Every structure is written in structure tokens, then in C-alpha cells.
Amino acid sequence: xxxxxxxxxxxxxxxxxxxxxxxxxxxxxxxxxxxxxxxxxxxxxxxxxxxxxxxxxxxxxxxxxxxxxxxxxxxxxxxxxxxxxxxxxxxxxxxxxxxxxxxxxxxxxxxxxxxxxxxxxxxxxxxxxxxxxxxx
Length: 136
Fold this sequence. Notes:
Number of helices: 4
Distance between the termini: 29 Å
Shape: globular
Mean pLDDT: 81
Low-confidence stretches: 1-17
Structural class: alpha/beta
């Protein structure tokens, strides 16, 4: 799945790829969510979810028990911004994973790291290791 890139636009608060991170995964495509889940588990992380729609993702984000999140930008045609906002309010770092660039008019997307689909496990690991990513 090569050719993907991680845009270094934000910062993750003291997160590294060391095992044991609890990562919320929200993606409306079941197979993509399963792939991300497998990658994270292979890297030694615990997956929260995955959630496949806005309501489930928001409920998991508000429930707590997570360290960070990977969010698809569009969930069945709905923006994942309410989930991103809930994570921001709790001071939790997140990144977006999408095959499309974020809407430049959506102010909430500015400074958020983007894991461009398609991506591979090496790119997920690099995104989680990158010290410059921090919660916004």
C-alpha cells in the first residue's frame, strides 16, 4: 500500500509507538477499520472500537479510556469533527486518516496530522512515534 505520507501538521503529546497505547479507531469502511486495527495490534497497541459511524465514535470518544485516536474525516457522508472536538476538549491527540485532503474551509482541520490513505503499518508506526505531534 505504498505511496502514503504522514503530514506533520500537529503534535502528539508524549506518544510513541511503545506498546500499550489505547487507540480509538473510527472509520466507516469496515475493512479499512479492520486493517488499522490489525496494524495497531501488531504494533502492540490496544484498539478502542473500532467505530464505524459518527454516533458510535462520539460515544467512545466521550467514554474515555483511550490515549489517542485515528479518525476517518468523512463517516458515511458526515464530518468526524464532533469526535475531534470531543477529543480536543479532553486534551487527547488524534490524527485523521483519509484518502481525501481535509476541507480547507474547515477550520477545525488546521494543524491536525493526516495519514493519507492508502498507508501501511510502517507509516502508522511512524505517525505514532513522531514527537512533533501533540494534541491541539
